[in-house]
Amino acid sequence: MGIALIWCLALILIKWITSKRRGAISYDSSDQTALYIRMLGDVRVRSRAGFETDRRGSHPYIDFRIFHSNSEIEVSVSARNVRRLLSFQRYLRSSRFFRGITVPNSSNILDDDYNGQAKCMLEKVGNWNFDIFLFDRLTNGNSLVSLTFHLFNLHGLIEHFQLDTMKLRRFLVMVQEDYHSQNPYHNAVHAADVTQAMHCYLKEPKLSKSLTPWDVLLSLIAAATHDLDHPGVNQPFLIKTNHYLATLYKNTSVLENHHWRSAVGLLRESGLFAHMSLENRQLMESQIGDLILATDISQQNEYLSMFRSHLDRGDLCLENANHRHFILQMALKCADICNPCRTWELSKQWSEKVTEEFFHQGDIEKKYHLGVSPLCDRQTETIANIQIGFMTYLVEPLFGEWARFSNTRLSQTMLGHLGLNKASWKGVQREQSGSGDDVDATFEEMDSDILPQEPRLS
Ligand SMILES: [Zn+2]
């Protein structure tokens, strides 16, 4: 082969490698740096100069890092050498590290007293009034790791699946770290709360007597990872900013697809199930995906009418694996939006947190003239309005059907809290002069894809 031919082949190879890199997930920004983050592969952090002709990402080039930072963002040259699988969240951390910024960590050394109290709480992990906020404080912000590890043990999963406890802990730590602690709502405490709720549902008689260890394993992993690496903004925001993830997932279940793929990345990276056959691992990844994708609230109508039809016909057979997995999807959906079914003290805190996150998105939308999304305008919305609409159109229809499926004390307790909490928010609404008249209108006007129109229960 002549030198010219070898040179030519080398050029083709370089071009091919360069084009392959375009598969990376990118975060573009208006500052001096654009970030190209490769998921499920290596990570490149490059100066924008190298990618002038390949500019992609969001318009108007919103960098997620601005959500939680007021300072000018720079990425040092040394950061270019980062080569490992990084989620957005882990990118943020490494970026801070390379910039020499240490984030104050509330790592007070816990004394035995706190550990003892946390352990004590875990003995009642199946109680519906479990206070996840207190548990998170007692575990020094490690509620997701501590709770999920405990549940794996409690359900005998470590023994049954011959899990390496070091790998399990490492996996759970990675999961917890990939939640954005800066998000007021979609953070690891929400994931821990959903996992705890899922555990309560798994214990319900109808389910517990028919679930296999495999079902329980998938349910807990899906619950713990269902919002992994959530950026703190919703899908419409990603779509209207033309974000790469929206393009990647064709504007459909954009966040849920990302949570699932991120979970798969961590499962593979941790090697937690490396001892299982490839076939089982692939089955696990796809079934976890089915569970996580079911949490897309815009698909609620479809799931709910399927659930209702099954209940009307009385044909759910939990010996059938497909039926069981459908019920687990419904259970995870319930766990995900069960905040209004908790006690007022817990429920109110969640309401405040989710509203804070909505309003934060609204602030960014205003700043960049993107048009403020429904429920995100702090000038016109109130927590009470948002909560009453949420309960009426999404939570009541779902939990009404769940109570038909599993008519237990827990279901009655949840519906009881739901009713009381709604009455409390209505009281707050009445006290607030000049607001609250248009809550139903707001929900009704929203795109039916986002908020399904369900008949009211009340
Ligand atoms: Zn969630």
From TrEMBL:
Keywords: cAMP, Hydrolase, Metal-binding, Signal. It holds the Pfam family PDEase_I. Residues 110-432 form the PDEase domain. GO terms for molecular function: 3',5'-cyclic-AMP phosphodiesterase activity; metal ion binding. Pathway: Purine metabolism; 3',5'-cyclic AMP degradation; AMP from 3',5'-cyclic AMP: step 1/1. InterPro entries: HD/PDEase_dom, PDEase, PDEase_catalytic_dom, PDEase_catalytic_dom_sf, PDEase_CS. Its EC number is 3.1.4.-. The active site is at H186. PANTHER family: CYCLIC NUCLEOTIDE PHOSPHODIESTERASE (PTHR11347). The keyword Metal-binding applies. It catalyses: 3',5'-cyclic AMP + H2O = AMP + H(+). AMP binds at H186, N187, A188, V189, H190, D227, D336, Q387. Zn(2+) 2 binds at D227. Zn(2+) 1 binds at H190, H226, D227, D336. Belongs to the cyclic nucleotide phosphodiesterase family. PDE7 subfamily. Residues 429-458 are annotated as: Disordered. It comes from Taeniopygia guttata. This is Phosphodiesterase. Binds 2 divalent metal cations per subunit. Site 1 may preferentially bind zinc ions, while site 2 has a preference for magnesium and/or manganese ions. Residues 437-448 have a biased composition (Acidic residues). It is an enzyme of class 3 (hydrolase).
